[in-house]
Amino acid sequence: MTEATNAATPDRTLAVRGLVKEYVRGKPVLRGIDIAFAPRGMTAIIGPSGTGKSTLIRCINGLVRPTSGEIHFMGLDLAKLRGRDLRLARRRVGMVFQEYNLVERLTVMENALSGRLGYVPVWRAFLRKYPAEDVARAFELLDAVGLGDFAHRRADALSGGQRQRVGIARALMQNPDLLLADEPTSSLDPKTSVEIMELMDGLAAKAGIPVVVNIHNVELAKRFAVRVIGMTGGRVVFDGKPDALEPKHLSEIYGGESWLT
Amino acid sequence: MAFAGLAVYALYAASTLDITWARLLVGLDEGSKFLGRMVPPNFQRWELLVEGMVESIQIAVLASAVGLVLSLPVGLLAARNLMPAWVSGPARLFVALCRSLHPVIVAILFVKAIGFGAMAGVMALVVASVGFVSKLFAEAIEEISLKQVEAVRATGAPFFSVLFYGVLPQVLSRFVGFAVYQLDSNLRNSTMVGIVGAGGIGGTLFAAFKRFDYDFVAAILIAIVALIFVSELISGRVRKAFQ
C-alpha cells in the first residue's frame, strides 16, 4: 500500500462542528454538536438511548445525512460529500455494528473480504476474484481476531462474540483511517464484551487509527477510552478524561441518581 | 346473515344458468359415453404426440429462461425498500399489468399480433413469468434485513456490489424456489396455449377433440399428466438442494 509508505503520518483528527440532524423538521435529534476527537486512542460516547449517539456515528460515515454542520476529517468535509465522493471517503472509515450486521448467508471469509468492496471492481467482487494481497490480509486479520479456522463457515453458524470478531475484521479490511463502533458490545455477555473491546482497542492502536465508540456500559468506557463524551438530549454535556467522570456527571447525562448507588 | 345471503344468491344464479337436476342427469349420461370412448387410449399417432409434447416443453423452458432473466431486474426495481417511489411505482404497475390477464388471453393477443406458432406461446408465458416471479421477488426483497445492506454500504461499496453482497445472498434461495415453481407452472400452461394456436401439444389436443378422436385425447392427457409428475419430482429435488 502506497499510503502506508508515506513518510509523514497523516493527520487523523476528526472534528465535528455545529452538527445538527433533524429526521423530522423542527425536531432535532442532534442539537449542535462540537467535538474535536483525538487523532489516536479510543473515544467513548455515553448517554441514554435515543439521545442521538447512533445518529452522530452514522453522520460521520454518511449513512445518515446531517441537516447542517461540518465533519472535518483527512482534509475533507464529510458532511458535504455526495454520491461517488462520499463512497470513496466511506472506504476510509470502518464501522462495527451493535448486531454485527454480517451477511448471514455468506462465509466468514466473504464477509471479511466485503470490507474491500469499495476498492475492488464489481465484476471481481461478483466472481470472488479478490487480489491475492486482500485474501492474505483477510486470513491475517481472521487469525488476529481468533477465527483463523472459521474462514469457510457460514456467518449464521457463529456465536454472537464470533460474529462481532468478523465484524471487526471486516471493518479493518477497509484499511481505514478511523474506526467507528455503534454499541459493539450491547448484544454480548460481559466477558465477551471485554474481549471485543480489547480487540478493537489493540488492533486500532496497532494500525495507529482513532476509534469512536458508542457504549452503554460506563465501566467499559472508563476502562478502555482515553476520553469520554457524555451526551444527553442531543447535546454534549461532558467531555473529558475518564477519571474526571464523576457521579454528578453521570446523573446529568442519564438523569436521576438512585441507579448510581 | 352473510351466509344466508350467499345461499339465496347461489339458488338464484343456479336458476338463471339452467343448472337443474334433470340437466345434470343428462350430462352424466353423455359423460359416461364420452369416457367410454376414451378407453382404451390410442397411442398409434405417437409421433404427433411426441412432436407436440416436445414443442410444449421447449416453449416452457424458453419462456422460463427469458422470463426469469427479466424478472431479476424488474423485481429489483419494484422493491420499495431499495428503490425510490418514482422507480418502484411504475415497475409495480408494469408487474400488475403482466399479472392482470390470464396467459391464454395474452396468448390470443400474441397470436393476433405476431401470428400462429410457438413464438406467440413463448411470449405469452414470458409475460406470465415476469408477472408472477418479479412480484414475489420484489416482496422477498422487501423483507430482507436492511442492517446487512447498511453494513455493506458502510464499506464504501458501489451500488452493484451492495446488491451482490448485501441483497442477493438474502433472497437467492427464495428466487430459486420461485423459478422452479414458475417452470412447473409454465410446463402446465404450455400444454394449453396451443388451443388458441400458440404452439405445443394444446393444438394437437384441440384438433383431436374437434374430430371426436377421444381415444387419442386420452393418450394426450396421459402424456401431459406424466410430464407434470416428472417435473414435480425434479423441482422438489432442486428446491431441496438450494435450501
SSE blueprint:
The complex is a heterodimer of chains A (261) and B (243).
Chain A: H1 2-5, E1 15-24, E2 27-36, E3 42-46, H2 53-60, E4 68-73, E5 76-77, H3 83-90, E6 93-96, H4 108-113, H5 122-127, H6 132-144, H7 160-173, E7 178-182, H8 190-207, E8 211-214, H9 218-224, E9 227-232, E10 235-240, H10 247-254
Parallel strand pairs in A: 3-8, 3-9, 6-7, 7-8
Antiparallel strand pairs in A: 1-2, 1-4, 4-5, 9-10
Helix pairs in contact in A: 6-7, 7-8
Chain B: H1 2-16, H2 21-38, H3 46-78, H4 85-100, H5 103-114, H6 118-142, H7 146-154, H8 159-190, H9 201-210, H10 214-241
Helix pairs in contact in B: 2-10, 3-4, 3-6, 3-8, 3-9, 4-6, 5-6, 6-8, 7-8, 8-10, 9-10
Structure write-up:
The complex is a heterodimer of chains A (261) and B (243). In chain A, the strands form 2 sheets. A 6-stranded mixed beta sheet of chain A has the order 6-7-8-3-9-10, with helices on both faces. A 4-stranded antiparallel beta sheet of chain A has the order 2-1-4-5, covered by helices on one side. Chain A is 35% helix and 22% strand. The N terminus of chain A is likely disordered. The termini of chain A are far apart. With 261 residues, chain A is an alpha/beta fold. Chain A is globular. In chain A, a hairpin with a 2-residue loop joins strand 4 and strand 5. Chain B is mainly α. Chain B has one domain: MetI-like fold (Orthogonal Bundle). Helices cover 81% and strands 0% of the residues of chain B. The termini of chain B are far apart. The model of chain B has no long low-confidence stretch (mean pLDDT 90). Chains A and B meet through helix 3 and helix 5 of A and helix 7 and helix 8 of B.
Name a few traits of the molecule.
heterodimer, A: 261 residues, alpha/beta, six-stranded mixed sheet, 10 helices, B: MetI-like fold
